[in-house]
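Record pair follows.
FIRST:
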Amino acid sequence: MTDSDEPLPQHLAELGRRVLVRVVERPGGGRELALDLLAADAFVTYAFEAQAEADVAGLATLAERVAGART
């Protein structure tokens, strides 16, 4: 479990979303945002891996949550 009360997959997905929001908020950014973009991708990827290990049946729900997340 993480410091938050959220299960690990949801926590990782939220971290990825937050990093991605920072990237999107800098539309004039260039190559300096590449590491942030890669970090966002990694967090979401790890979220799906953690969900698959915990309960593969929850993958669709996690995907819907990630795809439907709005700021």
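SECOND:
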Amino acid sequence: MKQTLLDRLNLVRIKLTTHAGERRRWSQIQRDGQPHIFYGHDTIPGVDEIAGGGLIKLQDLAERFPNTPCGANILYLVSSALPYFPVRMATWAKEAGAKIVINQNGVHYPGWYGKGWHEANAPMRELLQLADHVVYQSEFCKLSAEEFLCTPTCGWQIWHNPVPTDRFLPSDDRPPLSDGLRVLCAGSFWSRYRLDCALQATRSILRGRGKIHLTIAGRLCWHRDESVARGELDAMINDLELEGHITIIGPYTQQAAASVLSNSHLLLHTKVNDPSPRLVVEAMSCGLPVVYSDTGGVPELVGRDAGLAVPGIIDFAVDTPPDPILLAHAMRNIMEDYEGYSTRARARAMELFDVREWLQRHAVLFSELANEAR
């Protein structure tokens, strides 16, 4: 999306204001050997506010390690939720003696970002070079960062995105499958193909005389003006004659996330090369099997027992959407053993992705870094 003149003027104003504020922020850090964490944002949105992506991880962390905007001895930045001027922030924090942790998600690559991808990667590249420790959200995140950013010289870990399994629970009120398969397609839709695939897969099942209802939840943001994207979505639904089989609910809060998931039987995740979507482990924790493109970091999350993958082309030069016919076929196959897939999805989420284990790993890391910052 191109910046308008007003955007550029506002950025200059923010830059001037931020310069003085950042100097003050790092003028004196805590040196008591205890972790004091700043997440790059003065406030972290609550679970009752609209938020997504990397900010959700910060909500999890801030519950146990409160956000410390001034005097922190650890700066923790998530690459998919960076503040304004993150390199300047990290540079001044490091000069003050604070430790830098980068939680590295995906990268900008030609297939989805297009022209300017190299320049867009520059802040993440510089942050990895400044880091004292890197947390990769998946093996795919690590490999793509090494391909398009750099290989850091500091320590690193691969910690997949977590889920509060005690809050994201299978629902007893989910409609019976005999009434039809209820499918959820959710997230921030930066690419139109994701919904095009989901709608065509839905039509394929209907043409095979199956019963299905698709819920679309999240931001429609492949256009700057979301109303334009909504108009295109409505036109797609009309062209495919899917009226009455689609519900659109828009963005939702973390507080409402479990309820949104509990109304569905299955998550249809059509994004190509998705690095490590939190949505997927939330769905699994609620007992939703996942149908997905066999690309990116999603196979690491779902495995082969909590859902079904459709073949995907791993190509950073161009994104190739999954075949809607294969998506429909995978959904039909899951319906044949729905209870088995649902049970295995919940079990996998509890065993591998529970937020309590993820927080404990951070506690150990933060303690080590805080001692080094004394």
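COMMENT: Residues 9-14 have pLDDT under 50 and may be disordered.
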